[in-house]
Amino acid sequence: MSSKSGGAKKKAGDGRKIIADNRKARFNYSIGETFEAGIELKGSEVKSLRTGQGSLNEAYAQVTRTGEVMLVNAYIPIYLQANQFNHETRRPRKLLLHKREIEKLAAAVQRQGMTVVPLRMYFTDKGRVKVEIGLAQGKKLADKRETLKERSWERDKARLMREKG
């Protein structure tokens, strides 16, 4: 009957427990196609993520020459109870994708100059950690300003509706 405090942040509508959400990526990039990838983690990393900590800020994914996709610069804090068996906080982690998906990502990055960015990290119903990655094109400064204007207008519109209604 007791619930654990400090766990994963929130539960999405489809039963996912979201660990980390990269909100800056949606602002700085226009996201095209998205993929769901598994991630190769050590035990202490999974334990640390279960506490709801972790960050995808400044993280990116890259396709290596050997045909693997690596998640670089994602922050998973150390797990205090793991003491000597702990992990590095910002080590490169392998993302698990199908071969066709990897080829598609590599082609888009090479030919179209796109970037692969992690959008969110979450636990599935089965307790597996997944990372949602997206093919992204960098936004220009004018596009970012337009996004800010739209958000501001939506906020003002909602405020006006509350005052009138």
Output the keywords.
single chain, 165 residues, alpha+beta, Small Protein B, Chain: A, 8-stranded antiparallel β-sheet, 8 strands, globular, disordered N terminus
Please explain how this structure is put together.
Pfam families: SmpB. Keywords: Cytoplasm, RNA-binding. It is found in: Cytoplasm. This is SsrA-binding protein. By secondary structure, this protein is of the alpha+beta class. It has one domain (14-139): Beta Barrel (Small Protein B, Chain: A), CATH 2.40.280. The protein is built from 4 helices and 8 strands; from the N terminus they run ββαβαβββαββα. It has helices at residues 23-28, 43-50, 99-112, 141-164; strands at 10-11, 17-21, 29-39, 60-63, 69-72, 93-96, 115-123, 129-138. Strand 4 (60-63) and strand 5 (69-72) form a beta hairpin. The relative contact order is 0.22.
